[in-house]
Give the backbone structure.
Amino acid sequence: MALTNNKLPIFVLWVVVAVAADAKIADFDEYLQKKAAESYEQSLNAFNPNPEDLTDDFNQLVGKTLASENNGTRRNLINEDGCKATNPIDRCWRCDVNWAKNRKKLAECAAGFGYKTTGGKDGRYYIVTDPSDDNVEEPRPGTLRHAVIQKRPLWIVFAHSMVITLRQELILTSNKTIDGRGVLVHIANGAGITLQFVQNVIIHNIWIHNIVPASGGMIRDAADHCGLRTQSDGDALTVFSSNNVWIDHVSLSKATDGLIDVIEGSTAVTISNCKFNHHNDVMLLGAHEESSKDAIMQVTVAFNRFGIGLIQRMPRVRWGFVHVVNNDYSHWELYAIGGSAHPTIISQGNRFRASNYRYTKEVTKRDYAEESEWKNWQWRSEGDLFTNGAYFRESGPPLKHAKSPLTGENLIKFRPGTFVGRLTRTAGALRCRPGRYC
């Protein structure tokens, strides 16, 4: 299939018709059909045909950051000035004591496949003052739901700490940043967040937990459109047929379904500096065995902590290309990284600490395929650290560090797994205070 910038592939017409089945859309009207077609075309444009090149560049960036620490910068930044940023994404913004006045500096800091994401950088600030969510058809100004449906770029911040209990799934429009720095923002005890048919979204520094299914009904998904939705699944955060998405410093736990899903032809996504606890199906990348449109999916999973009470899917991948770099995995109960439908998974510089149960030592799991099939899937491990009996079963051809999807700014260059404790020590939502290093 040829990917072009000026012509929509023929099979996109099929995508527009078929996508409604899994999109929780009860009425797939002309407005949504147009959004679906436009979003998928933009995802095709965001797809990098050489992803290995991107991972190489990411690795170089990490190396430079750690080298600066070892040459004395670490002593000056951490011990004397108080800046605790130790990975290249954090170093980009956290060592500015005036971060609260320079919030949009964050838009320059994305790395990995989502490196082009700038969110609401080109828009005005929107201050959320009201934590309520009592009207999903006509949201009240000052609420988070009113902010995210506006059809213009916005940088969304919060006037004070709050717990937002969503009555129905929160459906975002394009070109938005949700920035919870400086206060404590919890999305909890209700529905989750949905990015569907959108582009250029940053979700940063919030807590998302105790997410449950919502009944569905008429929900406003844009200032000029209200659509009929079916019951939601209870996912904490869903990226559906969207591109250029960056999820950073988010703490996630306890949802009815998954914590993060990236599905249905989504691509150019980075999930970084997040903390995951107390959940079964943690992260699903690629929706179904038959969803070949996920072949364009490219996701970077970097500097995250997969911690207490996790069972599986960190991530589980179908079809696409995933770079798993410098994450900390501790005591999974079934497996850490799995997949089916011949995905490519490049694991670099992660730390894998197996549980004491002897049947869960293997990091990897390949579902629904015989070894004669999966032995050709490219699942490679470089620089990973394995403890307490953990091991990674490789397959497919070795990674060639030449022209591939992992070059340029798409790549986060890994450091050996022994560095992971330093690189991930502040994963999750941060308790930032204005006037101090975050």
